[in-house]
Each structure stands twice: as structure tokens, then as C-alpha cells.
Design goal:
The structure is a single chain. The radius of gyration is 14 Å and the shape is elongated. The strands form 2 sheets. Strands 3, 4, 5, 6 and 8 form a 5-stranded antiparallel beta sheet that branches. By secondary structure, it is an all-beta fold.
Length: 90
Amino acid sequence: MHVMSTHTTRFFVLLQGVRRRDGRLAFPTAIRLASTNDLSDVWRDFRNVDRSPVEFRVLDGASMSVMNLPQPIEARYIRLNLFNYTNAPW
């Protein structure tokens, strides 16, 4: 996975699915964002104003997805947690 930030509220995420032994393509369908300013600190989920976790959806296994954040985020470290899969790779 490769992440490029071109603006404080927009991320371009390049996802690469994997081909399973049975020939089907496995790829993540839901991604959650977490951040921290210090790697020894707790990672915090990025949340909406109603405090629910922001979850980005990848619907078709496209290799590039645009994530528009509902509000700007300022952090030193950002982690993308792959939350759900289509045809899980294991």
C-alpha cells in the first residue's frame, strides 16, 4: 500500500490486491485511519464529529482510491488499518 497526500484533507491510496491460489483477487474493502504524534503513544482512530470511526470503502478492488477526509488531520504518523476484505488473502 502506498499513500500520497496532496492536501490536508485528501489522500490518494494505491492498493494492490493479491491473487489467491484459486485465481480470485483478494483486496481490502474497508479501511480505517489512525494517527499519533509519537510512536510510543496510543494510536487514535480518526473520528467524525459524532465520534464514530471514519471508515473508507473500496467497492470494486480498484488500484487507486481517493479518500476525502471529513475534517483536516494533523499528525506525525498515520496508519491505515485494513478492516475488511473481499476474498480474504489467507
